[in-house]
Structure formats: C-alpha cells, structure tokens
Amino acid sequence: MSSQSKRKSQSSILSFAQSQTIKQEEVEIKRETIDIQDTPIVPVPCPICQYNIAHLDLAQRNDHVDTCLVRVTFVETEIRTEISEKVESSEVIIKEEFKEKFKSPKAERKSKSPKKERSESREPSSMAKKRKVELKEDKRQRYVNTETKIHDEPKVIKPPTTIQPSKFTKKSIPPLKIMTFPIDKSQNLKYQLSVDAFCFAPSDFIDKYFLTHFHADHYCGISKKWAYERVFTDEDFENRGKYKKIIYCTTITGKLLTLYFSIDEKFIKHLELDTKYRIVSFTDEVVEDGGYICDDITPGIYVTPIIANHCPGAAIFLFESYGLDGNKTTILHCGDFRVNKEMITHPSLRRYNIESKDCLMIDKVYLDTTYMSPTYIFPKQELVCETIANLFYDLKSANLFNKWFGMLTQTRITDFWKPLKKKKKFLILVGSYVIGKEKLAISISKKLNSKIYVSNINNRKNKYDILRTFQDSYLDSVLTDDDIGEGDESEALIHLVPMKIVGQFQEMQNYFNHNKYFEHFERCVGLRPTGWTFENRREEREDFDLPQLCIILEHQTEFSYDKHILTQQSKSKEKSELNKIYTLPYSEHSSFRELAYFIIFLNFKMTIPTVNCEHENSIRKMNDIIELWELVRRVKLNKMKPSDYDFIEDDLLKRFKNITLDNF
Question: Does residue 462 fall inside a structural domain?
Fold first, then answer.
C-alpha cells in the first residue's frame, strides 16, 4: 500500500465524507471534459439563432437554447451575446424572471407552517463551514425556499395617472405578424389584425391584437399602459364607455396578463378553446364586447382557438373570413405548438384533413419552425412523460433501484444524533419556466400518487399563484405548500424548480443541501427537459431528399428509460452517487417529423415559416423541405404534377401512399 493510501485510511469519518463529496463532483467534471475532448470539433448551431455553440459544454448549450426559446434567462440585467446585434433591444428584452406583481385567491393556510420554522433554523453549522464548497450566507439563501405566501384578496387595478409617449421610436408591425382578410376584392377593401405583435409602434389601422400564449418572446412589449396608449386619446380613464377589447387570447393567458402586468380585463377578450367567435362584421352590424359565440357565415371574420399543446393557455388560431363578394379566406396561425394526432384530426380542422372526403384548403398557415430540420427527430411528448413516470414507479423494485443508484451505504455524521425517521426515497426536481414543462411533473405525480411543491427561489414567489390560474383540477388537488411532504404517504415528492437548478450538478447540490432536504429524502433526482439535445439526432445533410423523408415518416422515434435515461452516466464511477441529473427529450415545440405530418395531412395552400427567418440560407432550406412535404401531399391526394414523376420512383410512391395517420 502506498504512503498516500495509508494516510487516507487514517482519515476521520468527517474527512472521508468530505472527500467523497468532492470526489463525486470531480467525477462529474472529468466526465464532461473527456466527452468534449473525444468528440470531433464540428459546428453545433443553435436551432433558434444559428449561433455556433460548439465551444460550450452541455449545460451551457442547454441554457443558450432555452434562453432563445423563451427569451428568459436567470439574470436581472440584459445579456449581451454575439447575436445581440441582430436583435433590436426594443423588441426583445431578456430578463431572469418577470416581476412578481400579482395576487391570486387561495385557501387559508395554517398560521405557522413547519417549513417556516425549518427555514429559520437553517443556519450553517461550524462543521458545514469547513466544507470547501460552502457558500457565503447571502449566496446560500438564494437556494433556500421560504414560506409560500398566498393572497386571497382579488387584485385591484388602478388606471395610470397619465400616459406619457414613449421616448424610443418603435418599428411598425412587420408583415409577418399581420393577418389580412379581403372585405371585397373587386374594390380592394381589406381588414387587418395582428398576432404576437406587442413590442411595435401603435397602428392606425389595427385594433385587434391576438396573443397566442404567455411566453416573453410573444408578449414582449406589453405593459399596464400598453392598452391605454392604443385606446384612449385623452386621460378620461374613469369613463367606462371608452374602454374596448383589443387583446384577444385564451382565458388562462388573459388571467396571467392581468395578474402579471395589471392589464385591465376591460381590454381583454377571453376566448374559450374549441369555440368559434364572430369578432368583425363587414356589414353595418356592431359587434359588442369584442365578439360573441357564433357559427354563422355572414360577412365578417371568425376565430376558433385550438389547444396548441405548448404551455398552459397556449392556442393556435383558426381565422375564417367571408367577404361581401362571397369569397372565403382561411388562415391558421400556430404561434408555438407541439403537433399530435389529436390536433390534426381536431373537429375544427377535420374538413381540411386530406383523409376526409372532399377536403377543403386552408389558404395560409403560419408555422412554428423552431425545429424544422431533419436533425431534430425526438420522441413524442406523451411517450417521454409516460416513460419517466414508469421509471420512478418501477424503482419500487429493489433490483432496478440498486441498478440505478447502488445500495445506500453513505450516512451523514449528523444522522447519528437525530431520532430515526423513515426518509422518502426521492426528491424529484423538475426544471420549468415561468410557465411550461408542468406536464412532466403532473405525469410523475399521477403515477406515484405524490404531491407537487412549487419552489419560490429566484424571484418565483408567485409561481404557486400562476399554477392556480391553469384551471387544472388535478393540479390544484396535488399542489402543496409543504416542501418535504410531511404526512404524505408517497415515497417521493416533486419540486418544480427554475431550470438553472437542474442545469448543473453543483446547483442541484446547493438546493438539496442548503434546504437540508437530506434529512427527509434519501436521494435527489433532477430532470432537465429539453428537446434539442436528444442523442438520436440525425446528421444534418445538405441533400435531404424524399427517401430520407419516407424513412422518417414510417418510423416512430423510440424512447425507453433503460436505453435513454439510465445510460446517461457511467455506471462504474457513479453507482454510489446519491444525486443525479438527467436530460429528457421533452420539448413543447414540434419535432421535424411532427411538422411533416402536420403539413402533409392538412391541406394548406401556402406555408409561411415564423422562426429562423433571419438568414437567407435557413429560409432556402425550409422552403426546400416544404416543397418535399407538398409533393408527398399531392401523392396522397392523387394530384401529382407531371414534373413530380421525375423526383419519385414507383417503389417510393407506393410507400408514401401507404403512410397514414396511424403511423404518426
């Protein structure tokens, strides 16, 4: 035995525990370093801004992409990056979290919660101060959850005292965000409205602004004064007759606007999903209250919100207009969405489905092209939720439990002086945005019959209230303000935490240790949901063609926990670790395969990309792909052009015809 080994064998129990902790952290870092060195250095473009992120490690790449997706990061000041020069500061403001301004009704709580008592006693001991990774007290408190505060009284909204014109010159609303409907083509009369256009200058001809969902890159620019600036020409704010509905969104999104930005509900038209509204009349009829439920076809504009499968309250909007000359115009705006089979076969879209008899055509679709590249073939969202829920459920089996974690052999020195108390097996941390990613937590909760606690660190003191606006009866029944689940018989508890906490191992350790959760849970598992890093991504090729498309359409993307989750870390070196982080291919944007099915099986005359449109090369690639999708649609409709036969052989033609929505 070497002298170094002899010295180690004589170490105290405390030193041994400290060295084990440090060793685990070093293993994590070395593993990442080895991966980077062994991987050829090739460009890794961000799917949103196309910036090369090959020099970043995995966690930094995830942070970069997630920031682009939601335009929200975890710092209060504006962020300057290499791509910042391409984005107007007046259009996109990147902040850590949105100000916690609102209050929401909540059932009465106990006068003093046990969690508050624990938080007051969470002072660093002299033993803890010896740890090399110990943070200073002010930094330590950033990770400590405090008592959840719920306000029962309704939010009181007062009008502004005055409306000051903006000091900054804003751009006009771009054509991509304006929907145009002909009133009478013979006289060139038209009506226009906008979608997700709140950071631009007021328009003289637009008085209806649609918001697809409550994510910052879509509502950016909105404020309490925003509506007043577009409705009032004076400061007679007490005159209720001057108010009018100009913001159109789902009920959930509307409530969030009021709670978060104090937008007066008198400016908001709440739209129920799967309900058709008449919002504009081309005749002398006056449309009261911003619109009403109607299934008529008299001249005017109608809108039907359809669930977008993105975040709570998100919708795609089906616009239908009937002109004075009898012409009909149909536009589908997708905002951000995640395609599934139920969406393609939705009752409001069924008549446009190519599998229906005498299908009609939608004139334009504004498509969320976030992942419009054949490299992004990640599994279905429902499959990922089901798989991770089954994993935790199956961990009740000792064999699988030991395979994943190994036997629990480490005990904290402080445990010897505390009364024995059975700990829960897991604290499960699910990374989330201000809104978004909740489906993952709900799926696990249903399978394990466990509660969901909402972390209030990082300025998320209103996250609990936000979840209460989702109108989800199950979620309401499992939300708890007890972060350790005392009295709950489930072997696990789920925490919804900021994405940063599950972004790096040390961040998760800080959260777990500084809240003293080790006293109540044996292990901590962090889940980082993101779609773009799925390991089965295909290599991007310039010559993407019909045979490759056919293969993608024919085969569903597989996902299982033994192949895609448990293998993410080295079993030999990390068996003894108590805490782990796993990246899940869970995205709230459509994969390339899902987009292909959407465009092929719904009959669109024109497809307009809305994401990745800043670069000419990117636009060209997307247009080439759209042409392939449209060719396949013509094959299935038996409406091929003579020139189409030059690009497709008989065998491939037969394979495309055999693909149905059952293959989705």
Answer: yes
314 in a structural domain: yes
> Which of the two residues, 369 and 161, has the higher pLDDT score?
369
Q: Which residue has better confidence, 263 or 60?
A: 263
Q: Which of 337, 361, 391 is the last residue of a domain?
A: 337
Residues 409 and 553 in one domain: yes
- Cα angle for residues 396, 399, 400 (degrees, 5° grid): 65
From 454, 457, 438, select the one nearest 446 (Cα to Cα): 438
Dist. CA 632–CA 437, nearest whole Å: 33
- In whole angstroms, what is the distance from residue 294 CA to residue 291 CA? 9
Residues 388 and 490 in one domain: yes
Question: Rounded to whole angstroms, how far apart are CA atoms 568 and 582?
Answer: 7
Q: Considering its fold, how many domains does the chain have in total? A: 4
Domain boundary among 35, 68, 86: 86
The Cα–Cα gap between 356 and 251 comes to 31
- Res. 155 pLDDT band, cuts 50 70 90: confident
Share of the chain above pLDDT 70, in %: 72
As a three-state string, the secondary structure of 76-105 is: CCCCCCCCHHHCCCCCCCCECCCCCCCCCC
pLDDT over 70 (residue 86) = no
Quote the CA–CA distance of 626 and 11 in Å, as a whole number. Answer: 66
**pLDDT greater than 70 at residue 95:** no
Q: Token pair of 88, please?
A: 């107007």
Q: Within the chain, how many helices (H) and strands (E) appear?
A: 22, 18
Judged on CB neighbours under 10 Å (0-12, 13-18, 19+), 204 is exposed
Residue 27 burial by Cβ neighbours in a 10 Å radius (0-12, 13-18, 19+): middle
Handedness of CA 546, 547, 548, 551 (dihedral sign): positive
Burial class (CB in 10 A: 0-12, 13-18, 19+), 201: middle
Q: Is residue 164 part of a domain?
A: no
Q: Tell me how far apart the alpha carbons of residues 520 and 497 are, in angstroms, rounded to a whole number.
A: 18
Measured distance CA(80)–CA(69) in Å, rounded: 16
Share of the chain above pLDDT 90, in %: 54
Residues 619, 579: contact at Cβ < 8 Å?
no
Nearest in space to 64 (alpha carbons), one of 77, 55, 54, 53: 53
Is residue 585 helix, strand or coil? coil
Are residues 363 and 276 located together in one domain of the fold?
A: no
The dihedral sign for the CA sequence 217, 221, 225, 227: negative
Tell me the C-alpha distance between 593 and 185, whole Å: 38
d(Cα 458, Cα 434) in Å, to the nearest integer?
Answer: 11
Q: Which of 384, 368, 331, 34 is nearest to 215 (CA)?
A: 368
Angle CA(235)–CA(194)–CA(237) in degrees, nearest 5?
10
Residue 5 placed within a domain? no
User: Do 189 and 302 fall into the same domain?
Assistant: yes
Q: What is the DSSP letter of 45?
A: B
pLDDT of residue 122: 46
Question: Residue 123 sits in which domain range?
Answer: 116-149+377-584
Q: What is the pTM of this model?
A: 0.79
319 phi/psi in degrees, rounded to 5: -100, 135
**Residue pair 574/566 in contact by the 8 Å Cβ criterion:** no
